[in-house]
Amino acid sequence: MSLKVNPVLCRAGVMDNYAYIITDEETGVSAVIDASEAEPVILKCRELGLKPQYILTTHHHFDHVGGNEELKALHNLLIIGPEEEKNLIPGIDKGVGGGETLFLGKTKTEVISAPGHTLGHVLWYFPDEKLLFTGDVLFNLCIGGIFEGTTEQMWESLQKIKALPDDVLFYPGHEYTAHCLADAVRRENSVVMQDYAVHARKCLAAGLPVAPVSLKMEKQCNPYLRIKDRETFEQLF
Ligand code: ZN
Ligand code: FE
User: Fold this and answer.
1) Could you tell me the distance, in angstroms and rounded to a whole number, from the CA of residue 34 to the centre of ligand 2?
2) Angstrom distance (rounded) from CA 168 to CA 225
């Protein structure tokens, strides 16, 4: 029971997206979470000797689906994403909604509905491995913009993440930590925030992803997760 996660930086220096190549190690079955663009994902798959069988999409934005059609043509893979955004996701084969369960080889994944950034946005949660892919809902030390939904929807989506176990590790859709760190540090001066900042600066200096960070740490440091009531949250926007 283990899932190997390989982050692939896409649109580097422009949007700094992450695609994630995930592999169920027992069966070798692989998937790409958010195929932002094809080329870096193809190169990484080649390097790892993997042929992904699925793309799991969090939401329809071009920087999360830009590689769908090229990867599909190359690997004949199945593209799965939010049912509500089916008409906006290139190459999609199967729509899913919150509460549905799928298997990647022998590894179970649960779809969590998390609207706000977009109306159909989903999170991909692996409860046994305690891994969570948050797309553009949750980033390290900040959150995604509210483009289609309401602040209320975003608040509810963040509460779902907060309700997940502390030892879950999360993987966001972008490397935005450098932008979010200063504000988070300004708002919070705890020991755990200082630890987070040290970790983040070390990763960024080495050109490595800051992810994964535990939800425990994120809940204590991310200004948007630390807010305890919806009224205060809504005042931020
Ligand atoms: Zn987006
Ligand atoms: Fe994005």
Assistant:
1) 9
2) 15
